[in-house]
From TrEMBL:
It is an enzyme of class 2 (transferase). Pathway: Amino-acid biosynthesis; L-arginine biosynthesis; N(2)-acetyl-L-ornithine from L-glutamate: step 1/4. The keyword Amino-acid biosynthesis applies. This is Amino-acid acetyltransferase. The gene is argA.
């Protein structure tokens, strides 16, 4: 679904490199993958992500894979704060000491004996994580990557107190996060590790929930994302054929879902703290399954992700382009210019014509663009450079861009739009365009028509 402005001849075709069909297919697949993730890498550089996960990740032997993925993100220039839980390890410690667990209001009642178990468990998990990071990640793509880990008394806590007559003793909630110290560590390219323990100004220790620490840290740091790795695949809803994954929710919809009481158990707890983080200014919250290998990378670098994303504002926006979008537009159209679908445009031309472009942005990354060039005297306009990223095709983005161009054309008083295309004739014919001739083009555009490309002229009445 691409159109082009035929101002210059198409570049000469380049012979395909020698190699087997299988090799060429692998090469093409790699290039497509690299082009699809490159915008994310650019968008995420120097951003701050808070990643929270329960002690189950360690308990089930999934830690090394997660640490490898975290190392990869840090190598891309992403600032990472890791927050770990330790629930299964606390249970083990309490069982060893013959202490029975008590819960109320969804929280552990932490007496003196339970607090000692919580300290031992948190220390055990923290040391496991630091050891996994320090061993150099052997037998992984990030082997020999050096990561410095910082942990400390970054979390100030206060007691939960007495709720409905139940004294929670040493169970606490976050009072304050030392955001300045954490930012200083992140700026030094260190990974910050937070445990589910906090201390009062008087030195009293409190047992905290991982979710509370993670959401409080994300808010204090004004993080760009908070990610919860959970035992659930994400937030689910009842579908015609059974439970279906909710892939994207606005903050308002997430709040309504939480208030409905339909999401219970641990999933409801993650939802609650995701809402808290977004309300506190965090742009995106993600709930993803830890059991899926590479789920963190898949969620961040695939268009649809693998879990549930909650966004402070609408995840996708259709808007007019600004000078900041020039690089994203060039990245979108480059593959189509290389294969001759589009006439090649340089950065200078895109910069000059940026006011003509509309773009679709998804999670800070451009996935589509189109331009309108009006010929006011003839009350006609050319739609050019309609492009949608391969991973977003089939989602309706092309039609949304077409409608935006039509709206802009009507607002300019135009009565028709046309496209010049060599490969996407049928896509436009299905959407109300009809075949026309070069003689139907406005005079100024007719003089610039590229007879070597012999593009089809398609026109639509508005």
């Amino acid at each position: 679904m691409n159109s082009q402005t035929d101002l210059v001849p198409a570049p000469a075709s380049v012979p395909a490199p020698a190699g087997t069909t299988e090799n060429l297919a692998q090469h093409a697949q790699f290039v497509d993958w690299m082009r699809s993730v490159a915008p994310y890498i650019h968008a995420f550089r120097n951003k701050t992500f808070v990643v929270g996960f329960g002690g189950e990740v360690v308990h089930q032997g999934l830690l090394n894979a997660l640490v490898s993925d975290i190392a990869l993100l840090q190598a891309m220039g992403i600032q990472i704060v890791l927050v770990h839980g330790s629930r299964p390890q606390v249970e083990e410690q309490m069982s060893l000491h013959g202490v029975e667990s008590e819960f109320s209001h969804g929280m552990r009642i932490t007496d003196a004996r339970a607090l000692e178990s919580a300290k031992e468990a948190a220390g055990e998990v923290r040391l496991d994580i630091e050891a996994a990071i320090s061993q150099g990640l052997p037998n992984t793509p990030m082997a020999h990557a050096h990561i410095s880990v910082v942990s400390g008394n970054f979390v100030t806590a206060r007691p939960v107190g007495i709720l409905d007559g139940v004294d929670f003793a040493h169970t606490g909630v976050v009072r304050k996060i030392d955001a300045d110290s954490i930012r200083h560590s992140l700026a030094s390219r260190k990974l910050v590790l937070l445990s589910p323990l906090g201390f009062s100004p008087t030195g009293e220790a409190f047992n905290l929930s991982m979710e509370d620490v993670a959401s409080a840290a994300a808010i204090a740091l004004r993080a760009d994302k908070i990610v919860f790795l959970t035992e659930t695949p994400g937030l689910m809803e009842d579908g015609e054929e059974g439970p279906e994954l909710l892939r994207e929710l606005s903050l308002d919809d997430a709040y309504k879902l939480h208030e409905s009481g339909e999401v219970t158990g641990d999933a409801g707890f993650y939802l609650k703290h995701s809402i808290r983080a977004c309300r506190g200014g965090v742009a995106r919250a993600h709930i993803i399954p830890y059991a899926l290998d590479g789920s963190l990378l898949l969620e961040l670098f695939l268009h649809d992700g693998v879990g549930t994303m909650i966004s402070y504002e609408n995840l996708e926006s259709l808007r007019e382009a600004t000078p900041d979008d020039v690089g994203g537009i060039l990245a979108l159209i480059d593959p189509l210019e290389s294969d001759g679908t589009l006439v090649r445009r340089g950065r200078h031309q895109i910069e000059r014509d940026i006011d003509h472009f509309s773009v679709i942005e998804h999670d800070g990354v451009l996935f589509g663009c189109a331009a309108l060039y009006p010929y006011t005297q003839e009350r006609i306009g050319e739609m050019a450079c309609l492009t949608v990223a391969p991973e977003a095709q089939g989602t309706g983005d092309g039609e949304r861009l077409l409608k935006r161009i039509e709206q802009r054309a009507r607002a300019r008083g135009l009565t028709r739009i046309f496209v010049l295309t060599t490969r996407t004739e049928h896509w436009f014919l299905k959407r109300g365009f009809v075949k026309a001739t070069v003689d139907d083009l406005p005079e100024d555009r007719r003089r610039l028509y590229n007879w070597q490309r012999k593009s089809l002229v398609l026109m639509k009445q508005l």
